Prior knowledge:
single chain; mainly alpha; 80% helix
Amino acid sequence: xxxxxxxxxxxxxxxxxxxxxxxxxxxxxxxxxxxxxxxxxxxxxxxxxxxxxxxxxxxxxxxxxxxxxxxxxxxxxxxxxxxxxxxxxxxxxxxxxxxxxxxxxxxxxxxxxxxxxxxxxxxxxxxxxxxxxxxxxxxxxxxxxxxxxxxxxxxxxxxxxxxxxxxxxxxxxxxxxxxxxxxxxxxxxxxxxxxxxxxxxxxxxxxxxxxxxxxxxxxxxxxxxxxxxxxxxxxxxxxxxxxxxxxxxxxxxxxxxxxxxxxxxxxxxxxxxxxxxxxxxxxxxxxx
Length: 288
């Protein structure tokens, strides 16, 4: 089981860089996600097709994969919007509330027994977030958007667990990436009507960042997530991913000097969330 947790934490480390790209890339949240999924969907299909890893599946399975991918895309739009409205540290830390939503959604969606212990651990995250939420009013809009992103992340995690179980991970990730791209493609006309074309321009540096984000930090990352979803609970998966802010914060402090934008209560909140992750991991290991 330790190999599974090692792979899980490797995935979290990789995920820790995704928020950083949100700060490095100058495109707004929607354009960023649109280009990311365009590259990711094409890359996933070409690579997996060449490797012969895409298998024939039922129409139902295809729809399920597309649905999960759409959830991922809408989650990422709100996630990057949260970062644009605040900073990398706030945007990623707010996602920690997803474990609370997951603890409530998982029993209903997956027909599992409600786990009071999981809710207690998730509540530590909420206490930590309250400390973070109160430290500076200028970030409250970004935090509020982050809560929406966290709820959508919980939906993605639970339905990913439900629909990917027993399916070929490579085939499922192909339809997942396609589902994300189809969603942003459908939303594109609405975006253009509201925002116009001023946010659409060519920037070589941004496109290089987006290529890395779409391939290594999307296709490879979510392939790992699909594989892990078959071996650990959705709650454990989501709660462990709450360590993502720790990596993101360290990187953001080095690259963007975000240490000057937070205070002591912020670190107390982060410490509580890390504690909840460690407690849940210990619980999962004991259950095995």
